[in-house]
Amino acid sequence: MATADRKEREKEQRKNVILDAAEKLFFSKGFDSVSMEEIAKEVELGKGTLYLYFKSKDSLFFAIISRKWIEFGKILTEKMSQGKTGFEKIQILIRWYIEYAQKNADYNDMATTFGPQLFQRIDAEDARMMMEVSMKYIPLVHAAVREGIEDGSVRNDLDPTLLGMYLQMITFNVVSPDPSMKNGFATQGISYDKYVEMLPKFLCPAVARFPEKECDN
Q1: Which of 16, 32, 47 is nearest to 118 (CA)?
Q2: What is the spatial distance between Cα 14 and Cα 168, in angstroms, rounded to a whole number?
Q3: Angle of helix 139-151 relative to helix 160-175, nearest 10 degrees?
Q4: Which residues, other chains included, contact 111 with Cβ-Cβ below 8 Å and sequence gap of 6+?
Protein backbone atom coordinates (compact mmCIF):
# COMPACT_ATOMS: atom_id res chain seq x y z
CA MET A 1 0.00 0.00 0.00
CA ALA A 2 2.81 2.41 0.92
CA THR A 3 4.52 1.78 -2.42
CA ALA A 4 1.30 2.41 -4.34
CA ASP A 5 0.69 5.63 -2.42
CA ARG A 6 4.23 6.80 -3.09
CA LYS A 7 3.92 6.10 -6.80
CA GLU A 8 0.62 7.96 -6.93
CA ARG A 9 2.19 10.97 -5.19
CA GLU A 10 5.12 10.90 -7.60
CA LYS A 11 2.75 10.74 -10.55
CA GLU A 12 0.77 13.70 -9.22
CA GLN A 13 3.97 15.68 -8.66
CA ARG A 14 5.11 14.95 -12.22
CA LYS A 15 1.72 16.03 -13.58
CA ASN A 16 2.02 19.33 -11.73
CA VAL A 17 5.54 19.87 -13.09
CA ILE A 18 4.17 19.32 -16.60
CA LEU A 19 1.25 21.68 -15.95
CA ASP A 20 3.60 24.36 -14.62
CA ALA A 21 5.80 24.10 -17.72
CA ALA A 22 2.88 24.07 -20.16
CA GLU A 23 1.25 27.02 -18.41
CA LYS A 24 4.49 29.03 -18.62
CA LEU A 25 4.87 28.26 -22.33
CA PHE A 26 1.22 29.01 -23.10
CA PHE A 27 1.55 32.35 -21.30
CA SER A 28 4.70 33.38 -23.11
CA LYS A 29 4.02 32.04 -26.61
CA GLY A 30 0.30 31.44 -26.89
CA PHE A 31 -1.45 28.07 -26.93
CA ASP A 32 -1.36 27.64 -30.71
CA SER A 33 2.40 28.26 -30.91
CA VAL A 34 3.40 25.58 -28.39
CA SER A 35 3.81 21.91 -29.31
CA MET A 36 3.65 18.81 -27.12
CA GLU A 37 7.23 18.11 -28.15
CA GLU A 38 8.29 21.50 -26.80
CA ILE A 39 6.50 20.86 -23.52
CA ALA A 40 8.12 17.43 -23.24
CA LYS A 41 11.54 18.96 -23.81
CA GLU A 42 10.88 21.62 -21.17
CA VAL A 43 10.24 18.95 -18.50
CA GLU A 44 12.93 16.59 -19.84
CA LEU A 45 10.54 13.83 -20.85
CA GLY A 46 10.14 11.91 -24.05
CA LYS A 47 7.13 12.96 -26.09
CA GLY A 48 5.66 9.49 -25.73
CA THR A 49 6.00 9.66 -21.95
CA LEU A 50 4.23 13.02 -21.89
CA TYR A 51 1.23 11.41 -23.60
CA LEU A 52 1.02 8.92 -20.73
CA TYR A 53 0.09 11.86 -18.50
CA PHE A 54 -1.99 13.95 -20.91
CA LYS A 55 -3.63 12.59 -24.04
CA SER A 56 -3.48 15.89 -25.94
CA LYS A 57 -2.50 19.54 -25.75
CA ASP A 58 -6.18 20.40 -25.33
CA SER A 59 -6.35 18.15 -22.27
CA LEU A 60 -3.31 19.92 -20.86
CA PHE A 61 -5.08 23.24 -21.30
CA PHE A 62 -8.23 22.00 -19.55
CA ALA A 63 -6.13 20.56 -16.71
CA ILE A 64 -4.57 23.99 -16.21
CA ILE A 65 -8.02 25.60 -16.15
CA SER A 66 -9.29 22.96 -13.74
CA ARG A 67 -6.35 23.45 -11.38
CA LYS A 68 -6.98 27.20 -11.32
CA TRP A 69 -10.70 26.72 -10.67
CA ILE A 70 -9.93 24.41 -7.75
CA GLU A 71 -7.45 26.91 -6.30
CA PHE A 72 -9.95 29.75 -6.78
CA GLY A 73 -12.83 27.78 -5.27
CA LYS A 74 -10.97 26.61 -2.16
CA ILE A 75 -9.96 30.16 -1.23
CA LEU A 76 -13.42 31.48 -2.12
CA THR A 77 -15.05 28.93 0.20
CA GLU A 78 -12.82 30.00 3.07
CA LYS A 79 -13.37 33.72 2.43
CA MET A 80 -17.16 33.46 2.07
CA SER A 81 -17.42 31.55 5.35
CA GLN A 82 -16.31 34.76 7.09
CA GLY A 83 -19.33 36.74 5.86
CA LYS A 84 -21.95 37.45 8.50
CA THR A 85 -24.91 37.80 6.10
CA GLY A 86 -25.79 36.46 2.69
CA PHE A 87 -25.15 39.87 1.17
CA GLU A 88 -21.70 40.10 2.79
CA LYS A 89 -20.85 36.71 1.29
CA ILE A 90 -21.93 37.93 -2.15
CA GLN A 91 -19.72 41.00 -1.75
CA ILE A 92 -16.80 38.75 -0.77
CA LEU A 93 -17.40 36.62 -3.86
CA ILE A 94 -17.38 39.63 -6.20
CA ARG A 95 -14.24 41.11 -4.61
CA TRP A 96 -12.43 37.76 -4.77
CA TYR A 97 -13.28 37.36 -8.46
CA ILE A 98 -11.74 40.79 -9.09
CA GLU A 99 -8.68 40.19 -6.93
CA TYR A 100 -8.00 36.77 -8.44
CA ALA A 101 -8.34 38.02 -12.01
CA GLN A 102 -5.94 40.89 -11.32
CA LYS A 103 -3.40 38.62 -9.62
CA ASN A 104 -3.55 36.08 -12.46
CA ALA A 105 -3.64 38.37 -15.49
CA ASP A 106 -1.51 36.08 -17.71
CA TYR A 107 -3.73 33.11 -16.96
CA ASN A 108 -6.85 35.19 -17.49
CA ASP A 109 -5.68 36.38 -20.92
CA MET A 110 -4.71 32.85 -21.97
CA ALA A 111 -8.02 31.35 -20.83
CA THR A 112 -10.17 33.99 -22.51
CA THR A 113 -8.13 34.02 -25.73
CA PHE A 114 -8.00 30.28 -26.41
CA GLY A 115 -10.74 28.91 -24.14
CA PRO A 116 -13.77 29.62 -26.35
CA GLN A 117 -12.42 27.73 -29.37
CA LEU A 118 -11.15 24.81 -27.28
CA PHE A 119 -14.42 24.40 -25.39
CA GLN A 120 -16.18 24.01 -28.74
CA ARG A 121 -14.21 20.83 -29.44
CA ILE A 122 -13.82 19.47 -25.91
CA ASP A 123 -14.18 15.70 -25.66
CA ALA A 124 -16.52 13.89 -23.28
CA GLU A 125 -13.85 12.97 -20.73
CA ASP A 126 -12.49 16.50 -20.36
CA ALA A 127 -16.01 17.96 -20.37
CA ARG A 128 -16.96 15.67 -17.50
CA MET A 129 -13.86 16.71 -15.52
CA MET A 130 -14.58 20.41 -16.07
CA MET A 131 -18.22 20.00 -15.10
CA GLU A 132 -17.32 18.21 -11.87
CA VAL A 133 -14.92 20.97 -10.86
CA SER A 134 -17.23 23.86 -11.73
CA MET A 135 -20.29 22.31 -10.07
CA LYS A 136 -18.38 21.95 -6.82
CA TYR A 137 -18.22 25.72 -6.26
CA ILE A 138 -21.12 27.20 -8.26
CA PRO A 139 -23.63 26.38 -5.46
CA LEU A 140 -21.79 28.80 -3.14
CA VAL A 141 -23.36 31.88 -4.73
CA HIS A 142 -26.84 30.33 -4.79
CA ALA A 143 -26.54 29.46 -1.10
CA ALA A 144 -25.43 33.02 -0.31
CA VAL A 145 -28.41 34.47 -2.20
CA ARG A 146 -30.87 32.25 -0.34
CA GLU A 147 -29.21 33.05 2.98
CA GLY A 148 -29.42 36.76 2.17
CA ILE A 149 -33.12 36.53 1.37
CA GLU A 150 -33.73 34.72 4.66
CA ASP A 151 -31.69 37.17 6.78
CA GLY A 152 -33.13 40.22 4.99
CA SER A 153 -29.90 41.49 3.42
CA VAL A 154 -30.75 40.48 -0.18
CA ARG A 155 -33.86 41.59 -2.07
CA ASN A 156 -36.61 39.00 -2.04
CA ASP A 157 -38.53 39.94 -5.19
CA LEU A 158 -36.32 37.97 -7.60
CA ASP A 159 -35.95 34.26 -8.19
CA PRO A 160 -32.94 33.23 -6.06
CA THR A 161 -31.65 30.70 -8.58
CA LEU A 162 -31.75 33.21 -11.43
CA LEU A 163 -30.20 35.93 -9.27
CA GLY A 164 -27.36 33.55 -8.39
CA MET A 165 -26.82 32.79 -12.08
CA TYR A 166 -26.84 36.48 -13.01
CA LEU A 167 -24.28 37.28 -10.33
CA GLN A 168 -22.03 34.43 -11.39
CA MET A 169 -22.17 35.16 -15.11
CA ILE A 170 -21.96 38.95 -14.91
CA THR A 171 -19.03 38.87 -12.50
CA PHE A 172 -17.14 36.21 -14.46
CA ASN A 173 -17.60 37.97 -17.79
CA VAL A 174 -16.63 41.38 -16.42
CA VAL A 175 -13.41 40.21 -14.76
CA SER A 176 -12.49 37.87 -17.64
CA PRO A 177 -13.24 39.73 -20.88
CA ASP A 178 -11.76 38.82 -24.23
CA PRO A 179 -8.33 40.52 -24.35
CA SER A 180 -9.38 42.47 -27.44
CA MET A 181 -12.02 44.19 -25.31
CA LYS A 182 -9.29 45.70 -23.16
CA ASN A 183 -8.05 47.56 -26.22
CA GLY A 184 -11.58 48.80 -26.75
CA PHE A 185 -11.65 50.15 -23.21
CA ALA A 186 -8.35 51.94 -23.81
CA THR A 187 -9.65 53.71 -26.94
CA GLN A 188 -12.42 55.14 -24.78
CA GLY A 189 -9.98 56.23 -22.09
CA ILE A 190 -11.10 53.54 -19.64
CA SER A 191 -8.56 51.26 -18.02
CA TYR A 192 -9.38 47.60 -17.47
CA ASP A 193 -8.72 48.00 -13.73
CA LYS A 194 -11.16 50.91 -13.50
CA TYR A 195 -13.76 48.95 -15.48
CA VAL A 196 -13.48 46.02 -13.09
CA GLU A 197 -13.32 48.05 -9.90
CA MET A 198 -16.68 49.66 -10.71
CA LEU A 199 -18.42 46.27 -10.73
CA PRO A 200 -19.29 46.13 -7.00
CA LYS A 201 -20.82 49.61 -7.16
CA PHE A 202 -22.94 48.50 -10.12
CA LEU A 203 -24.10 45.20 -8.61
CA CYS A 204 -24.65 46.31 -5.02
CA PRO A 205 -27.89 48.29 -5.59
CA ALA A 206 -29.21 45.49 -7.81
CA VAL A 207 -28.81 42.87 -5.07
CA ALA A 208 -29.06 44.54 -1.65
CA ARG A 209 -32.43 44.63 0.10
CA PHE A 210 -31.60 48.08 1.49
CA PRO A 211 -29.01 49.66 -0.89
CA GLU A 212 -28.88 52.92 1.07
CA LYS A 213 -27.68 50.94 4.08
CA GLU A 214 -25.58 48.19 2.48
CA CYS A 215 -23.90 50.01 -0.42
CA ASP A 216 -21.02 52.47 -0.27
CA ASN A 217 -21.66 55.81 -1.90
Answers
A1: 32
A2: 33
A3: 130
A4: 65, 68, 176
Write out pLDDT tens, residues 86-96: 999 999 999 99
Backbone angles phi, psi at 154, to 5 degrees: -120, 140
Neighbours of 52 (CB within 10 A): 11
Measured CA to CA, the distance from residue 149 to residue 160 in angstroms comes to 8
| pLDDT tops 80 at residue 118 | yes
What's the topology of domain 59-211? Tetracycline Repressor; domain 2 (1.10.357)
- Region 1-54: CATH code: 1.10.10.60
- Helical (H) or strand (E) element with 154: none
Q: Return d(Cα 115, Cα 129) in angstroms, integer.
A: 15
High-pLDDT (> 90) share of the chain, %:
69
Q: What are the sequence ranges of the domains in the chain? A: 1-54, 59-211
Res. 135 pLDDT band, cuts 50 70 90 = confident
- Give the model confidence (pLDDT) of 47-102 as tens digits: 999 999 999 999 999 999 999 999 999 999 999 999 999 999 999 999 999 999 99
Cβ atoms of 60 and 22 closer than 8 Å? yes
Q: Which residues, in sequence order, are bridge partners of residue 154?
A: 208
* pLDDT above 70 for 4: no
